[in-house]
Each structure stands twice: as C-alpha cells, then as structure tokens.
Design a protein that fits this description.
alpha+beta; SH3 type barrels; 5-stranded antiparallel beta sheet; 8 strands; 58% helix; 11% strand
C-alpha cells in the first residue's frame, strides 16, 4: 500500500502539486480508491454471491441449509467483508500522519465488531425457521437459550466496541466490571428480574408459542405469537396485539386453555335461576303430558315427585343423547344454594366443539332448548320486572 501511495504522489507531482497539498491529495485519492473497492466488494457480495448461495442452498435436499443460509444472514455477512478490506488497507494510506491511522483503525474495527454482532444475531434468529406454529417443550428451551445467547453476544460486543474506542483491552474492562457489578445489578434490577422470570416461564413448561391464554385483570385473551426473555406477545381475538411481561405471568396468575383444546371437550357451566313460586308437586295431568311429549318413564314419576326434579332428570338425560356433548366427561344438572333472586340450577357439561364460534353456537342451541321447555314442567325462570 505504501508503494501505491508513493506512485500516486509522483503522479500528482507531475501534475504540478507540491508540499502538503501533494501529500493530502495523493492520500485522499488512494483512500477514495480503497473505499470504492470496498463498495465494489460489497456489491459483488450483495448482488452476486448472496443470491448464488441462496439458490445453491435451495437446490439441496437438506432443509437445514435453507434455514441457516438464508438471505438475511448472508446479507449481514456481506457487510463484514468490505469492512475488513478497509480495516486492512485504509490506515496504511495515512501512515505518515501521526494520529489518523489509529483513528481509522479504531473506526473500522468498531464497524467490523458491530456488523459481526449483527451477523451472530441474524444467525441465531434463523433457527426460528425450525419451529412450527406451536413450539414443543424442547423448542421452547432452545428458544430461551438463544435469547440468553443473544444477550451475551450483545454484552460482549458492547465491551469489545468500548475497548476499541478507548484503546484498552476488553479483558481489562471485564475485570473492572466486577467492582461495579453491585451498581449494575441495582440499576438493571427490573431487567434482570424479568429475564429470570422469562427463564422460569419456559423452563417450567408453563407457556408455549401458539397457546391460548387469558390474564385476569388485563385485556389479554388470545394466542401467544412470540415469547422472549423479556416480553410475551399475544394477539387477541379482536385482532389487537398486546405485550405482557413474563414477570406478570410468573408472579401473578394466568389461564392457559391449551389443555382444554388438546383434551376431550370445552367446559360449559351455566346457571339459571327459577322462581320459588313455580316449584310444586307434579300432578297427574303434568305427568301424563311429560310422558307423552318428552318420554318420561312411569317409574321415575311414581309417587310424590317435584316438577323441578323431573326437569333435572329429563335435561340430564337429554344432554347425554346429544352428539355434540362429550358424555365421557363429567356432566350433570345440579341444584345450588337458594338465593333471594331464586333457586339456581347449574348445567355442567363439556362440548366437543372447542373453537370459539362452533362452541358458542352449540351452547346457545342447548340453552335455548332448556329455556323453551321450562314452561312444560310448570316452572318459571326468575327475572326482575
């Protein structure tokens, strides 16, 4: 590089330049050539090598190279090559100046470290391509590990960049952090607590990407779109996006509905209040009508029997005949403690339809039928006039 600078000086000297103007002009010209060459290298990597490697990866039968050698990662790597080229040659151009080579070396080294950090983070993010819509426990552990790894890379990169700027060894800065660790822990207490909560959330297998969760006291009611060590991103069913801290989930409480989705049914627990004045003994006329219309058996209506008892028996038997109810799980109609607003009956069963819309439609169909037959049993639903 020194020979190129001398030859450029001679060329400019033939053009009539002398003194400091000659030195500065010749070195600026060589610097522009170096920067131009770096731009050409970047364009070659960006426009030629990166697309070529992406196409080569796509043509292989293996899937991992398509994910790891993706366009984002390769383009991040293409920023490092011209930086290394400038770092190798540009400082030598200004070797005759006292402080300029040192400044250029530090500036280009800072750029190379920054781009290397960006490459490492892009490479780690590319592992998300191996995940499905819902992460398994192992994938969630690995996702958490990648989050910790990214934090470590950013921390080390910041230390190295700071060391480059001030001209000290990174090990010296790391040793100095030991004395200030107490202050750092106090300043970043909330961040550290959030990170620990994120690790607890994933290591205990409490939550996965794709889970349906609700958080009491908040508007969170939707599907987990992404999880990091510091935030949980949830898309609500009204298509809004909310973020919640892992610390809120770990220290408080939240409801994960995935066990219901993966189970045999979604629970229904409805309560209807009946007017006390409508509860009475069933007479022969009522028994005859119920036998003809609803197929009530004579043995279950024998003797003195209350109309509400007949109503409970019939509804429970009718629920058991429905195809949309999972009769392999608990189902019953029971009486709860009396209140000043009527006598409550609780309808408890599990529907096979677990998605929101079908669930609501089938639930409505069952309860509407229950409301419609109440009068045939001589009962009245309590309501304020």
């Amino acid at each position: 590089m020194y020979d190129i600078v001398i030859q450029t000086e001679q060329l400019f000297a033939h053009a009539g330049m002398t003194g400091q103007t000659l030195m500065l002009a010749s070195r600026m010209a060589v610097a522009l050539v170096v920067l131009g060459a770096a731009c050409v290298i970047y364009l070659l990597c960006h426009r030629l090598i990166v697309p070529l490697m992406v196409r080569m990866a796509e043509k292989t039968v293996m899937e991992w190279d398509d994910i790891l050698l993706n366009e984002k990662t390769l383009r991040a790597a293409s920023h490092i090559v011209p930086g290394l080229f400038v770092w190798m040659f540009l400082p030598d151009v200004f070797a005759s100046y006292r402080s300029v080579p040192e400044i250029l070396s530090r500036a280009t080294a800072f750029y190379v470290v920054l781009m290397s950090m960006r490459l490492c983070i892009a490479f780690i993010d590319s592992f998300k391509g191996f995940e499905g819509e819902r992460r398994t426990a192992k994938q969630q552990y690995f996702h958490t590990f990648c989050g910790v790894l990214k934090i470590a890379i950013i921390f080390i990169s910041v230390i190295v960049m700071l060391a480059v700027v001030i001209g000290r060894s990174p090990l010296t800065l790391l040793a100095g952090l030991g004395a200030t660790s107490a202050i750092l822990m106090l300043v970043f207490k909330d961040t550290i607590t959030g990170l620990v909560a994120g690790v607890r959330l994933t290591s205990n297998d409490m939550l996965h990407k794709g889970d349906w969760i609700t958080v009491p006291g908040t508007e969170v009611n939707g599907i987990v779109e992404d999880m990091t060590l510091t935030t949980v991103k949830v898309r609500n069913f009204d298509n809004t996006t909310l973020t919640v801290s892992p610390l809120t989930l770990v220290d408080g409480s939240f409801q994960n509905w995935m066990s219901m989705s993966e189970g045999g049914g979604r629970r229904v627990k409805r309560m209807v209040f009946f007017d006390f004045r409508s509860i009475r003994m069933a007479d022969d006329g009522m028994k005859r009508r119920l036998s003809e219309k609803y197929g009530m058996r004579e043995e279950e209506m024998k003797g003195d029997v209350v109309n509400m008892t007949l109503f409970r028996r019939y509804v429970e038997r009718w629920i058991a005949t429905r195809d949309d109810v999972n009769t392999g799980m608990t189902f019953f109609v029971r009486q709860l403690e009396a209140t000043n607003t009527g006598l409550p009956l609780e309808f408890y069963f599990f529907l096979k339809q677990k998605e929101w819309k079908p669930y609501e439609h089938h639930l409505a169909a069952i309860m509407e039928y229950v409301y419609a037959i109440v009068e045939d049993f001589g009962l009245k639903i309590y309501q304020r006039v």
